[in-house]
Amino acid sequence: MQEEASKPALQIDCEKITVAELKDILVKEYNITISKQIMVAINEEYANKDDIIQTGDVVAMIPPVSGG
């Protein structure tokens, strides 16, 4: 996703949006492809699609991990 955005991080000015709404913004406004396997964390805690992102929160998109 960093490669698609051409930046290591994005700052999006939104107030009280859900994780699902953020994903929609990334797809529509930044043309970023988001896999269904991507996990989202808000302030270093895993989040669900209906969790609310507050002003000032740090959101991370975590790709699938494999290994043994």
Automatic annotation (TrEMBL):
Give the UniProt record's GO annotations in the biological process aspect: Mo-molybdopterin cofactor biosynthetic process
**MF terms (GO), sorted A to Z:** nucleotide binding
Origin, by domain of life? Bacteria
Gene Ontology CC annotations of this record: molybdopterin adenylyltransferase complex
InterPro entries assigned? Beta-grasp_dom_sf, MOCS2A, Mopterin_synth/thiamin_S_b, ThiS/MoaD-like
Q: Which family does it belong to?
A: Belongs to the MoaD family.
Protein name in the entry: Molybdopterin synthase sulfur carrier subunit
Organism in which the protein naturally occurs: Bacillus mycoides
